[in-house]
Amino acid sequence: MKRKICVFTSTRAEYGLLRWIMNDIQLSDDLDLQLLVSGTHLSPEFGMTVEEIEDDGFDVDHRVEMLLDSDTPSAVTKSMGLAMVGFADVFRDLEPDIVVILGDRLEALVAAMAATVAQIPIAHLHGGEVTEGAIDEAFRHSITKMAHIHFVAAEPYRNRVLQLGEEVNRVFVVGGLGLDNLERLELMDRSELADSLGFGFGERNLLITFHPVTIEPLESSVQFGELLAVLERLDDTGLIFTLPNADVGSRALAAMVEDFTNERANAAAFNSLGQARYLSCLREVDGIVGNSSSGLLEAPSLGTGTVDIGPRQQGRLRAPSVISCPPDRDQIAAAITRLHSKEFRAVVKKRESPYGRAGASAKVVQTLSTVALDSILKKHFVDHPVRTQS
Fold it and tell me: Where are the domains of the chain?
């Protein structure tokens, strides 16, 4: 009898990391894919990206609406409550053998809580990471404590999961999931991409992806304003904006993007590019600027430089091709100047990455097929030896 694997996805970025796991589960003789979709996938405001999932050949088993027409802390908390009610019914109906949950977002936390109450084993992807500028930090580690199988991107992340008391034989280092897209997706060349976007590339081009700094939400607009103050001086540079995630304060940032791009012929904004177009943009531009995890995970392997601004991604492993700077216009301008320098371009071309190589999805699916599930819900807190400084 096939194992029923329920994969949960709620955002475009998360789906991009899960896609090949879903694909390989669907092709497996030992596994049966169940697909639970929620969050911004079901929102026209954020591109109704559930349609992209279906276009990729996946059947959605359940949809759980949860977004309210506001991004205040109160509204977001109420959205989490709505999701909890929906997930309770889904897990009762699907009765999966394992629920696969990726990352650190609030939607993922609620899905993990519902699965925990339903006594369904959780496989957690990309645990052990640190993002000190985002409230997601607390969500990620909370999911780790609810999860029973852990797939991490690098050895330091494995060590952090172990620090949280997890058992050694339940933690698997598989590498960065996003790297599979670079090998398995057919990306567009610049001409095809320009036609698809309806946007003419300049002599220089930047991809701008800036999300709310949720640990200090009132500062997000100020930080983004510092970046826009630099970008408005770059008349010779093509600027491709993607809109922010559905976090507290996201609508204010989206409005700033709209105002900026409406006034400039060299700038364009997109709700959702889809994985192929997004990664094609990432490959074709001179650099990605903002605070997206894709600047740390995929960009180095594509030979694209990164300017990572502010604290949102603080604590994550970084390649030599990542320039970190505070959200100050003078330092952002200096970082972009360095991004274009001959010396830095030489570093970028080496394509060094701390996240290994493609192949993570296959490793995950193999483990989901073979891991023993008997008594897996009975977790033991392991007090691993603590290293002390001499």
Answer: 3-175+359-370, 186-348
